[in-house]
Amino acid sequence: MSSDGGDKARRRRVVDILRANRVGFGIFFVMSLLFYIFFLPLPPSKPFPIPTTYVFGATLYSNITAPRFIESLASVRRLRSQDFAVVISDGSPDPAVRDLLRGAGAHVRETPCCGRKGFALRDALNMALNLTKGMENVVFAFQEMEKSDMAYHWRIVVNSMVHNESPIGIPMRVDSYFKSTYPTAQYHSEKFGNLFINSIAESTLRGMDIDWLFGPFAFERKIAHYWTNHNGEMWDAQILPMVKAIQHGVRFISVAIPFRASLVMRGEEEGNFRFISKRKKQLDALLPVLEREFNRSTAAMIGNLS
């Protein structure tokens, strides 16, 4: 037999074998593909770098026995246990307040004379900015130091900012915890305030609600100027810079957290007319300012479209 004839015969046998076993080869191919998809290890994904977080705030207490000071001291200890740096501008008349806060691990300095809450907030932020000069990937997180439970929630807020590429992160209280752990009057006043603000800000927020009256918020260094350049003296020093940043197109994310208010704080405020009156004054002072701000923003947006 010639070599050509032998080659043809071998090719015919191979073709006959493939035809006879095409179902088996098909099954083998599918099983190999499934094994490749489900069992072979994937290349490791590039991890998101977690920012260093500096928690800052302003404090003012009559003495070291004040319930709010005791909560603040617990807050510093909890934050440090979670590896957060803590920076405080303190205006208390008793220097023992600052000594104990330092002893708990916070960077503390006395608030320069005559500044109110907004001034002290900016003083603490400027101190945090100076402490982190030359550092990259830093987030600054503001909170009232009495909110000691925040120590257990900042990490999820900061991680959400990173994963969503949002320079601003705003915690939102889960309603069941909000209602069950806050004084009754404060729960209802802040629920109404948030509803009012989110309603007038609807065109700016584009469907995302914010827990405006909770207090804490976090932001990246590149937008710190919104707060350092603002001259508000009270609650507006927290909220209006955030409003401006969002109006200017800075991305933000609202992050639901199971925050629990202190039982000591609730016991101090529940049914207390002085605190109930304070909540009313907060709304009276803040809501008209925000209404004007968002109405101005809406009018400008309509004017640009016309």
Could you explain how this protein is built, in words?
This protein has 306 residues and is an alpha/beta fold. The chain is built from 13 helices and seven strands. The chain has helices at residues 3-20, 22-38, 67-81, 95-103, 117-131, 154-163, 175-181, 184-200, 202-205, 225-228, 236-247, 263-269, 273-305; strands spanning 52-59, 85-90, 107-110, 138-142, 168-173, 217-220, 252-257. The chain has a seven-stranded mixed beta sheet, with helices on both faces. β1, α3 and β2 form a beta-alpha-beta unit. α8 (184-200) packs parallel to α13 (273-305) and α11 packs parallel to α13. The longest helix has 33 residues, at 273-305. The radius of gyration is 29 Å and the shape is elongated. The termini are far apart. The relative contact order is 0.12.
List keywords for this structure.
306 residues; alpha/beta; seven-stranded mixed beta sheet; 13 helices; elongated
What is the strand and helix layout of this fold?
Blueprint: H1 3-20, H2 22-38, E1 52-59, H3 67-81, E2 85-90, H4 95-103, E3 107-110, H5 117-131, E4 138-142, H6 154-163, E5 168-173, H7 175-181, H8 184-200, H9 202-205, E6 217-220, H10 225-228, H11 236-247, E7 252-257, H12 263-269, H13 273-305
Helix pairs in contact: 8-13, 11-13
